[in-house]
Amino acid sequence: MEPWRNVPGGVIDAHHHLWDRGRHPQPWIDPVRMAAIDADFGPGDLAAQAGPSGVRGTVAVQTIHSEAETVDLLSTAARSDLIKGVVGWVDLTAPDVADRIGRLRTGPGGDRLVGVRHLVQSEPDPAFLERADIRRGIAAVADAGLAFDLVIRHHQLPAATDLAAGLPQARFVLDHLGKPPLAGQDLRGWAGHLRALAALPNVSAKVSGLVTEANWSSWQPADLAVAVSHALETFGPDRLMFGSDWPVCLLAAGYHDWVRTLHELLTGCHQEQQDLIWGQTALRVYRLIL
Predict the structure, then answer these.
(1) Which tens digits make up the pLDDT trace of 152-206?
(2) Rounded to two decimals, what is the model's pTM?
(3) b/e burial code for range 61-93 (CB count within 10 A of at least 16 → b)
(4) Which of 139, 212, 220, 133 minimizes the C-alpha distance to 180?
(5) Phi/psi of residue 152, each to 5°?
(6) How much is the CA Rg of the chain, to the nearest whole Å?
(7) Measuring CA to CA, how many Å separate 187 from each of 121, 180, 195?
(8) In Å, what is the CA distance from 204 to each residue of 172, 212, 238?
């Protein structure tokens, strides 16, 4: 049975992107290797994919370090019946992080700012999350009542665990399960580090972005099963949420393909547990209003 036929109120997609490269260039997109997403993706494109998959609400997530992009995402959300939340970007090192968040909230769609994210995965400094200025910035995000999304690679999980333990007042959301190396690499290190992070009660995680961590052209649902199973064991369904990672997922799978795959991987869960992952956890963690 399709997931949206069971989830009360419909599915919440807790992680997707939108971009207009004319306004906000996306230099991380390799036009050869990533030709499938070397295009602009707007709210109409999102609705065409999400609607048939039973999605009632979504969370748009930043892609570049730009407050201007966040302003545009919030403005787009203000005009959308589908986008219920935005995870934006602010300069965590700025002395006025709280004021910057306040200004974002006063603009169009400012009430839909639900979190902040920084592309930690791209930071060359292995001690980035240990920096005092970064931690002060994340503390300001928490004080503003917002979640902080952790977009990291699996080797950065220990640093994220130390961060979350040091800021117990903050709500952290781990994107893409910490990017497990699903393309035939050893998962034991990732699994142990994820267990340590999941032991902290102030951390939730998104079951998202897994198809692009596997082999893009030949992955099978079974290739992702160990990651989903370990996330269920360590976080539990009450701290897991579905995310499409659209349009990035198009590198390896269509929107609906990923929805069907996750539904298949969750068949061992009770309906109440599936409801948490498909929507209720996102509503609670991001404090979304439908």
Answers:
(1) 999 999 999 999 999 999 999 999 999 999 998 899 999 999 999 999 999 999 9
(2) 0.97
(3) bbbeebbebbbbbbbbbeebebbbbbbbbbebe
(4) 212
(5) -140, 165
(6) 18
(7) 18, 7, 12
(8) 6, 21, 8
Give the residue from 24, 161, 168 showing the smallest Cα distance to 88.
24
Cα separation values, 203 from 9, 24, 42, 209, Å? 25, 30, 30, 18
Q: For 208-249, list the strands marked E by DSSP.
A: 240-242
Torsion of CA 30, 31, 34, 37, to 10 degrees: 120
Q: Which domains does the chain have, with CATH numbers?
A: 14-286 (3.20.20.140)
Candidates 58, 94, 19; CA nearest to 250 is 19
Query: CA–CA separation, 37 vs 241, rounded Å?
Result: 24
- Asked whether 38 and 31 are in contact (CB, 8 A), the reply is yes
DSSP 174: E
What digits encode the pLDDT tens for the residues 56-92? 999 999 999 999 999 999 999 999 999 999 999 999 9
Q: Are 154 and 196 spatial neighbours (Cβ–Cβ below 8 Å)? A: no
- Give dist(CA 259, CA 237) in Å, integer: 16
CA distance 249 to 8: 25
